[in-house]
Amino acid sequence: MEKATDLSRRSFLTGRRRETAAPISPFRPPWLREDVASACTGCGACADACPTGVIRIVGETATLDFTQGECTFCGACAEICPEDLFDLAVKPFDHVVEIAGTCLTYAGVTCRSCGDACPELAIRFAPRIGGPFLPEVVSSACTGCGACIAPCPVGATGLSPMREAADA
Q1: Which has the closest alpha carbon to 100: 161, 154, 37?
Q2: At 104, is the secondary structure helix, strand, or coil?
Q3: Are 119 and 141 spatial neighbours (Cβ–Cβ below 8 Å)?
Q4: Could you give the angle at the alpha carbon of 71 between the alpha carbons of 60 and 73, nearest 5°?
Q5: How does residue 23 score in pLDDT terms, banded at 50, 70 and 90?
Q6: Chain center to CA of 49
Q7: What is the pLDDT of residues 30-72, one digit of tens each?
Q8: DSSP symbol at 68
Q9: Which of 50, 61, 70, 83 makes the best surface tag, with the fewest CB within 10 Å?
Q10: Residue 168 confidence (pLDDT)
């Protein structure tokens, strides 16, 4: 797996050099149909057209990188693609956000940066006695836009394939 160096101010000031996982995910751009995703030529037109820069070309495949922004569902990627790979009639993403155990609230630190960034209010906080409220993802409300990923100070938010199970 490719590694990226953590260049945050905290890492610099503590004098530690921490390696973090690369920010590119295996998830496809919005509306890119799974059955034709392998036909992507990797031309980069979708990445160039994306106003928030969340689409990247890795190898010859279009992937998502939510470390700098979110998907606004503008449809520019689908409009510019020279191939017939996008289907605007289907749900844009087949993934939802997932919050890892490294979330600050599990360590007793109050943080709601993911919930504050979520435009759909899909991340809610359940009260608990003796500590900060714990984050809960409402899968049915999550659009998979990735708005909650970049603001997380510890990288505890990520994407997981959508499950047919009930909301947490």
Answers
A1: 154
A2: helix
A3: no
A4: 100
A5: very low
A6: 19
A7: 998 778 878 888 899 999 999 999 999 988 888 899 988 999 9
A8: S
A9: 83
A10: 44
* Dist. CA 158–CA 146, nearest whole Å: 8
Alpha helices in 72-123 (DSSP H): 76-80, 113-117
The two three-digit tokens of residue 135, written as one number: 């984050």
Long-range contacts of 50-54 (CB under 8 A, 24+ apart): 50/76, 50/77, 51/76, 54/146
For residue 162, the one-letter residue type is M
Instruction: Report residue 37 as tokens.
Output: 């995703």
Check if the beta carbon of residue 59 is closer than 8 Å to that of residue 42: yes
Q: Pinpoint the alpha helices (H) of 56-138.
A: 76-80, 113-117
* Residues with Cβ within 8 Å of residue 13, at least 6 apart in sequence: none
Q: Give the CA dihedral 31, 35, 37, 41, nearest 10 degrees.
A: -120
